[in-house]
Amino acid sequence: MTESIPFVRESEATEERAREAFRDIKNALRVPIVTLLFQAWAAVPRFLDLTWRRLRPSVLTVEFAALASKVGEESRTQTTGWPVADHAAQLRGRAVSEAEIARMREVIELFAEVNPKLAILACAVEAALAGKPVGGVGTSGPHREEERERPREFRGVRFSLVEEREAPPRVRAIYEDMRATMHLPFIETEYKAMASYPDWLEVWWRDCKPKVTDANYELLARSIGVAALGASKALPHGLFLSQDLLQTHGIDEAKRAELRRVTGTFARLLPSLIINVELARRGLG
User: Which of 42, 91, 92, 179 can bridge 8 by disulfide, Cβ–Cβ 3.0-4.6 Å?
Assistant: First the structure.
């Protein structure tokens, strides 16, 4: 049985350092939600605070945006030849409106943008927790404002999430099939967002499921994982999470071991998630 991962939702964060980190993470990534990776780190608030303050300088650079773009491009280019059904047409056949399909596109574009960044950060923190050197390659120098590639703005995108315990039978059955097929320890935010449009989740999963068990899928997931790991080593600013530093901040060995397990889980899951989001994005046209 897969070990569970504790998550601290935004509404459940009680420590000010976690709440402040959550606010800053959303602003830095320009997203309306705190993703599960950060919610998992928030189970140890001091770790979230300590780690985010050391990741933030890299996240705000144009170099980081370029690294994430390359990781995302790995999925876009390698899936070009994969057959993907016209999900939008199928949804129209189910009387889904153009306005709803447009909202679905906004949601999936958000995750297509942010997930490569999360994959890099998960790999960076996993390596740092193992005592390996991470980043510190520096930046190419100050950029004039007009030369900067501004991160895409998604903070205005609104969507609801269908939690497992609240899911209607139709959605719950898909969740269970996804867990079994992809060996998921939890249902990720992307799928909960898609489930607010059950027809979308159903159409996408029917198309995606056969690909998940294909050898090419596993090869691509490994390739994306390698790309994310390589990008983590090229972070502009170094990330150091020595045992002495963590111990000084009250993070003992038991907590460090748990953080290594949790972070490793995300480093493993995110490449596949990047692929699945790309398939959903292509399906909507």
Answer: 42
Q: Is the pLDDT of residue 2 over 70?
A: no
User: Of 209, 184, 186, 218, which Cα lies nearest the Cα of 279?
Assistant: 209
Total structural domains within the chain: 1
Q: CA 173, CA 87: separation in Å to the nearest integer?
A: 20
Enter the DSSP assignment of 151: P
User: Residue 5 falls within a domain, yes or no?
Assistant: no
Report field, pTM of the whole predicted structure over 0.90: yes
Q: Residue range 3-30: average pLDDT?
A: 94
Within-domain flag for 248: yes
Nearest-5° Cα angle at 149, 143 to 150:
110
- Tell me which residue range forms the domain holding 93: 10-283
Q: Which long-range contacts (CB under 8 A, 24 or more apart) does 173-176 make?
A: 174/201, 174/202, 174/205
Q: How far apart are CA 244 and CA 85, in angstroms?
A: 52
> For the chain, first and last CA: distance in Å?
38
